[in-house]
Design goal:
The protein is mainly alpha-helical and 235 residues long. 67% of the residues lie in helices and 0% in strands. The protein has helices spanning 2-26, 51-66, 77-93, 100-119, 131-146, 160-174, 180-200, 206-233.
């Protein structure tokens, strides 16, 4: 009897083993798909107007004003002066950022407006520059008069006599067409030289110190001659 049951037990065991993998294959695991992230929100910033755009606005403004029929127009000069000051303040403070051609255009348009305003009895008051705006102006004048943009406050003592000589030479060549503003700007360059001379002038030999004093006096003589000429022209 045991011999008969043994084959049946073996068959039952094999069937149970075969059914196990089948049940495993029918079992599925459900995975949760993460929700898609919302796209990031981007903020668009408006770029500030460039200096060239500011110049174009100012230039167009000047052209518009100079084309007005003055005989038939009564202008609000207070508003004009306010607009002029507002537009030129930014351009003056960052004029070095303009191209050479744009800077020339800017100075030309300023000169045109000043002449027009003066002809109509409203001369533009000279702007007193301070801080960075003043430094930028003096840097430009220094390049024209001394042919160098190197910081004068770092100049070697031995370089100062030649820098003074270059200032006097440039003044001799250009001062006949200078306005009071030009003289004021040249004096600012002279002030830089004098400040550096006060710091390191004692390092120079006596001969060079005498030369510097002579060049300082020559510059002052040119300036006084200009003042005298202005007085005589006013007689």
């Amino acid at each position: 009897m045991k011999r008969i049951l043994a084959p049946f037990a073996l068959i039952a065991l094999l069937l149970s083993l075969a059914a196990g993998p089948a049940r495993a294959q029918t079992t599925t695991t459900t995975k949760t798909t993460p929700a898609a992230k919302a796209p990031a929100t981007t903020t668009t910033k408006t770029a500030p107007a460039t200096l060239e755009q500011d110049l174009r606005t100012f230039s167009n403004w000047v052209d518009e004003k100079l084309e007005l029929p003055m005989a038939n127009v009564r202008l609000d000069w207070a508003t004009l002066e306010s607009d002029y000051t507002r537009m030129t303040k930014r351009l003056d403070s960052a004029a070095v950022g303009l191209s050479v051609q744009s800077r020339r255009e800017y100075l030309g348009q300023k000169a045109r407006y000043k002449a027009w305003a003066a002809e109509n009895g409203h001369p533009v008051p000279e702007t007193i520059l301070v801080g960075e705006a003043r430094d930028n102006v003096v840097d430009n004048v220094q390049r024209k008069l001394l042919n160098t943009s190197a910081p004068i406050n770092r100049a070697m003592a031995g370089d100062l006599p030649n820098l003074y000589a270059q200032l006097v030479e440039s003044t001799n060549a250009q001062h006949r067409t200078w306005t009071k503003t030009n003289w004021d700007e040249a004096n600012l360059v002279l002030g830089r030289l004098n400040a550096r001379y006060d710091q390191v002038g004692s390092q120079l030999p006596l001969e060079d110190r005498v030369r510097v004093r002579s060049l300082q006096a020559e510059f002052r003589a040119q300036e006084k001659a200009r003042d005298l000429k202005s007085i005589l022209n006013g007689l």
